[in-house]
Amino acid sequence: MLITDGTQLNNVDSMIDIETFSTEPNAVILSIGAVLFDPYEQNTAAELGEYTFYENVTIESQRHRHVSKDTQDWWKQQSKEAWDVLQYDQLPLVKALERLYHFHMTRTGIKLPKVNRIWANSPSFDCVILDTAYRHYERFFNFPVPFWNWRDVRTIVDAAYLPGDDTRPVIRVGTHHNALDDCISQALMVQDAHRILNRAYRK
């Protein structure tokens, strides 16, 4: 858990996931999800769901960003549930980035430390695209966590399990390609990988 009896814990990281209309660094961003978690704990999806962020973003506010026909076609092959959720409560990109920044830097009414690291699956996609978006508005705010504190979900999971290991779990919460559901799934994967690695270190 992130908070126990009001005591502030130190190991608070963030998992980020985005859905886009391109794979380029300046891709149009359709949605942004994030969840705060302690990578060294073992939580349930419901527990992680207490500290989450989710926003859909208007395409119209991103005329300076890239759209790929291949990615548009890819979306046509995804579930109706994943696509439909993107249509509600959309914000301009600058407002969504501002809210994401404040989600990581201030937690009004909740005693939480500053986020240490940001995880993604992988940072070369999610974090780079978000960082590019933030740079467009850098006179207002910057990406919440510097690049040297970005971490890769795939790398730690590969480190925890040998190729073909039958015990390697596939953790899936909610709808695939829903940014928030993917964040929670990935955070649980990181926690599980740490459990395996820490057990191995103690042998």
Descriptive notes:
The two termini are 26 Å apart. The chain has a six-stranded mixed beta sheet with strand order 6-5-4-3-7-8, sandwiched between helices. A two-stranded antiparallel ribbon has the order 1-2. It has a single domain (9-202), classed as Ribonuclease H-like superfamily/Ribonuclease H (Nucleotidyltransferase, domain 5). The chain has seven helices and eight strands; from the N terminus they run E-E-E-E-H-E-H-H-E-H-E-H-E-H-H. With 203 residues, it is of the alpha/beta class. Helix 6 runs parallel beside helix 7 (179-202). The chain is globular. Strand 1 (3-4) and strand 2 form a beta hairpin.
Topology:
Layout: E1 3-4, E2 7-8, E3 13-20, E4 29-37, H1 45-48, E5 52-57, H2 69-75, H3 80-84, E6 90-91, H4 93-105, E7 118-120, H5 126-136, E8 150-152, H6 153-160, H7 179-202
Parallel strand pairs: 3-7, 5-6, 7-8
Antiparallel strand pairs: 1-2, 3-4, 4-5
